[in-house]
């Protein structure tokens, strides 16, 4: 039997969305109240259900294995209980034509149902605290009062969750404001921004991307366990080469749960995105367009207004770092380390490409990421972090090579016209390993990841070689991270 919609359905669903409780994992606070209901009322099972537009989500269930389940509307009595702010009391489900054929009745032989509405402060019914029992019975007035009090405790818990979330949101926004004012290098800013977003939002993967002629390229990312393989699957798919670039426009784009968009954009792998956000960041120092991308995997829902606000502030923070990068790298050298800066590398690659066109000479480019810089900065302060950067730069200087500082913890090594590219690549690896070893001997807990690409073997020109070297460096970082985590 179809369930008629509540008269205030739009307001009810809006109130339910505010609490961000649908499709969330079990929480002891809810389980405790459900257990208490079974014990005090002497019933077989109790459940905390939230009723959405077309389904009912079971947040907690004691006595039945339904916690985390999402059932179609009308599948359980709670879908009917939200039609009124009064309790729904059914002495014998087997005699009610709405539920007599339900598996809980025919299979589990449950008979009694009592559902107490969970009321938001505005009076909207969010769901129910319900109890069921195989005995035909009716809760007396005292038992109904107990169930009503327990339902009120659940509503209080929802309010506490909401206020805690709002406080965390405010703190996260302030942290982004503070981070933007620190004017850190782009890589440092990206690392902190993505860490903050993952702590605040249910994200599987996020990344700072740049749009190139070949598609999307990754500058920095962060992945939870379920999102580890997302970027590698995406980069080689239509998402990375066609769809993603097309989505990067002048305004943020928030794609909600699968029914809204997955038919148009098939996922690149088995894990289906539960939501994707793309936020444009503007152009970097070399005119390359950048974007912040975020993914939720297998987690349905919409991007809430407060989530969008946080993401837009994060994009603003990254845009400021991009602007600073462009301004700083217009100069020829890095003031901290004395190495040549990114702008000088671009000029050197341009000259090398011209000489290659004329004389056919190739070159080898290495990109190095110094891991652990933030740990040193947090543990020992900026003085030690700056000493670390200067010492690493000093160790990278070698005959026949030119070293560049590209960003906070990113360096490049250029070997022009080597006789054998593979020998030059090994020389770069030996140099970087020695530089990291020198830092270890100084007591700095850091590691260096190197990616190497050759022109013309790996790319036809310098920009492509830089992207290829970064991809290989990122792959090396993932290998180390997976090795540490035993995967």
Automatic annotation (TrEMBL):
Q: Which Pfam families match?
A: GAF (PF01590), GGDEF (PF00990)
- Natural source organism: Deinococcus geothermalis (strain DSM 11300 / CIP 105573 / AG-3a)
Q: What is this protein called?
A: Diguanylate cyclase with GAF sensor
Region described as Disordered: spans on this chain: 457-487
- Output the superkingdom of the source species: Bacteria
Which residue ranges have biased composition labelled Basic and acidic residues? 476-487
Q: Where in this chain does the record put each GGDEF domain?
A: 361-487
Q: Which PROSITE patterns match?
A: GGDEF
Coiled-coil spans in chain: none
InterPro entries, from UniProt? GAF, GAF-like_dom_sf, GGDEF_dom, Nucleotide_cyclase, Rev_trsase/Diguanyl_cyclase
